[in-house]
Amino acid sequence: MDTKRRLELAIIANKVRKNALTAVYSAASGHPGGSLSIADVLTLLYFEVMNIDPKNPKNPDRDRFVLSKGHTAPALYSVLAERGFFPTEDLKTFRKADSYLQGHPDMNKVPGVDMSTGSLGQGVSAAGGMALAAKLDNKSYRVYTILGDGELEEGQVWEQAMFAAHYKLDNLTAFIDFNGLQIDGDITKVMNPTPIDKKFEAFGWHVIVTDAHDLDALEGAIAEAKATKGKPTAIIMKSVKGKNVSFMENNAAWHGSAPNEEQYNQATAELDKIIADLEASL
Amino acid sequence: MAKKATRESYGAALAEFGADENIVVLDADLSKSTKTEVFLKKYPERFINMGIAEGNMMSVAAGLAAAGKTVFASSFAMFAAGRAFEQVRNSIGYTNLNVKIGATHAGISVGEDGASHQCLEDIALMRSIPNMVVINPADDIEARLAVKAAIDHEGPVYMRFGRLAVEDVNGEDYKFELGKGVQLADGSDVTIIATGLMVEMALAAREILAKDGISARVVNIHTIKPIDAEIITKAAKETGAIVTAEEHYIMGGLGSAVAEVVCANAPCPVKIVGTDRFGKSGKPAELFKDYGLTPENIAEKAKEAINLK
Fold first, then answer.
1. Are the beta carbons of A114 and B90 separated by less than 8 Å?
2. Which range marks the domain in which residue B233 is found?
3. CA of B96: which chain A residue's CA is closest?
4. E-assigned strands of A68-119?
5. Tell me: the pLDDT tens digits for A78-118?
6. Architecture per CATH, A3-281
7. Could you tell me the CA-to-CA distances from A211 to A71, A171, A214 in Å, in that order?
8. CB atoms within 10 A of CB B129
9. Is B195 contained in some domain?
10. Active-site annotation holds for B54
């Protein structure tokens, strides 16, 4: 992508971060850390890569996305709103009793959500089912999913890893948000899932390791995944949990807690500054 | 008429009614036992072996259904409803996706394999999930027509099949209606409400009671959810005593479902024939006796219910 497009996407990604935090702040609950770490790849997918149409969210030929790490719904809702699936203003209703924006993604309530998720390990399996459906129907749509690194501790992920390789689902791309932290702390101390790359390779996947916050690198990785035939691709994204909010970065405490007013104001001020700097470079 | 296990009917019905290109059948390395191999032989391109991974199977089924497929996911009841409960609940029930779970080898009639494989809680588990339809057919024709009804119903369905060959209780011209109980014999003193292979025993219990001058109505409830509240309420009002019979735990199964209706609409004594113990190895006939799943015990419980009137 050219410099201008890269800057535009970076601006959107940071707006996605800011609106995701607004959702969590409005709800006084939710998962900010892992939402901030996946904002760049979500922006790239929904604004550049995926064949989707906010006016026709159920188009049978569309590309699919499954947020297997469903607790980071604030990031998904934020990018869907930014892309025009529903009004950004609605993000303030997140997790409220009269809202369609459920705490975890609900395919029957939220326009643009392709699969209900939240129980870890199940989303990646559903994504595999969608990829298989495309193969059975001779359709060319692709399926993308994002897993958490802690989520890899769920055995079901590896049942699906075996399945997707066995059925040669080369239309399936799984991103791993490798931020190194889960609720109880450092993933290598809680229950070490590393080496992640070698595990997926051993299961028969094509594996790419990249930077979760480098849009060019992510774009290249996705292109490589599309060009890979006969096997699914795992894109292991080294990421920063809480990315671009100084006090949230690399801090497991922000996995599942909402900022107070002061923290929210500081976080949005930091993101506004990043957005203003990017706009100045345009 | 030769006896037939309803798992055989499941496989046969998938092949019989499975012509629709949209139907996909999944199995977790048990196609020879669940009899999905009959479908596999006819439509190999639409059969997917999932290996021994029931959790993944249920979520893959959900993904296929989300992409427009009508999916049958097959395994033993123990692993379909038990091991993969949470996947069924969250990936299939909550999403209300078009997945049909074909669960074979339910109940103690599995026999020699013993307790680890004798699922006695699947009805309770499955009927607790909103959106889920639960069917427990009594014989071959009912099982085959249940598969057809599941195809025609949009949404999740759990079908409970047995390993043991059973007699026909329905005739050749039998019409299956989802959610509708079937009165097999009329009576005025008590109603025996049974499901699955206990329906045959309920009819035998009626004969025993007749010898003692007791007139028993027999109702087959093949669809446990949504349950036919009308036929149950009518039975409660007209006969004033009910005994239920199922190859399942007493907690949460057919008996509980019937009691929920009776308590709300027409309170009367309800006795539940089932078990509260884990199963064990043995021949099905021996186990039925040991666990009280016999016409004699149903008749005994019917008398107890009548005495409580």
1. no
2. 182-307
3. A108
4. none
5. 999 999 999 999 999 999 999 999 999 999 999 999 999 99
6. 3-Layer(aba) Sandwich (3.40)
7. 22, 22, 5
8. 20
9. yes
10. yes
